[in-house]
Amino acid sequence: MARSNPIKIAAVVVGGWIVLEVALRRGFVSVAPAVGIDPLLADYLVLAIGFPLIAAILTLYALEQGQRSESWERDVTARALAGGLIAAIVGFVLLNGAILIDIVLFGFGETSRAGGETLTAAFEARPALAILFLVGNGFVVPVAEEQVWRGIVQTDLVDGFGVVVGIGIASVAFALKHVIVDLSVSRLTMLLTLGLLLGVVRHRWGTASSTVTHALINTVYSASAVATVFL
């Protein structure tokens, strides 16, 4: 099959992810109470099941448009694992600084406090939710997002615009996706920093490496949120 325009593929994949995630996290979660499903449970099911489905749909689209799976560089090697681990350690320093900037810029409002209190109450009442959250947000989400945002989107944007611009656009798109889905800019600096870090790691060591970095970062922050409830 002839290769389609890489920039067009990237644009369709970005738009497709946003539409599908909004449909699941705003649509399915909003109707969950009507069928007797706790909204928080519904949201975590979207993370654990919905994200892989979104990634699978968009991956099939990219392959049908002529993108080669070899270009994603998903080989799990010692070099990729080491690069991902080192990048995660560096990432914790960068992200903690970015979080402080976000607090200065956007504050830590009542919405964030209320969300934390809701999460604490839910985990205390149903510890299984904490496990689902850890698995979904800590492991499944990074695997799905790295496949699409660094494997597919960044690959095509770098092909179309070059390394610097391609990584930059992919990072901004990744951050804006979260802003749109969350309906909040309160994590904007942190998300831009994370996107740039993962973009550089993917370009240097491959998508397998950026997946390791993303999974380690998400797991540590998710485990910290759970630990504040039970410890």
UniProtKB/TrEMBL annotation:
<dbReference type="GO" id="GO:0080120">
    <property type="term" value="P:CAAX-box protein maturation"/>
</dbReference>
<feature type="transmembrane region" description="Helical">
    <location>
        <begin position="128"/>
        <end position="145"/>
    </location>
</feature>
<feature type="transmembrane region" description="Helical">
    <location>
        <begin position="183"/>
        <end position="201"/>
    </location>
</feature>
<feature type="domain" description="CAAX prenyl protease 2/Lysostaphin resistance protein A-like">
    <location>
        <begin position="129"/>
        <end position="220"/>
    </location>
</feature>
<keyword id="KW-0482">Metalloprotease</keyword>
<dbReference type="Pfam" id="PF02517">
    <property type="entry name" value="Rce1-like"/>
</dbReference>
<protein>
    <submittedName>
        <fullName>CPBP family intramembrane metalloprotease</fullName>
    </submittedName>
</protein>
<feature type="transmembrane region" description="Helical">
    <location>
        <begin position="157"/>
        <end position="177"/>
    </location>
</feature>
<feature type="transmembrane region" description="Helical">
    <location>
        <begin position="84"/>
        <end position="108"/>
    </location>
</feature>
<keyword id="KW-0472">Membrane</keyword>
<keyword id="KW-0812">Transmembrane</keyword>
<keyword id="KW-0378">Hydrolase</keyword>
<dbReference type="GO" id="GO:0008237">
    <property type="term" value="F:metallopeptidase activity"/>
</dbReference>
<dbReference type="GO" id="GO:0004175">
    <property type="term" value="F:endopeptidase activity"/>
</dbReference>
<dbReference type="InterPro" id="IPR003675">
    <property type="entry name" value="Rce1/LyrA-like_dom"/>
</dbReference>
<keyword id="KW-0645">Protease</keyword>
<feature type="transmembrane region" description="Helical">
    <location>
        <begin position="41"/>
        <end position="63"/>
    </location>
</feature>
<keyword id="KW-1133">Transmembrane helix</keyword>
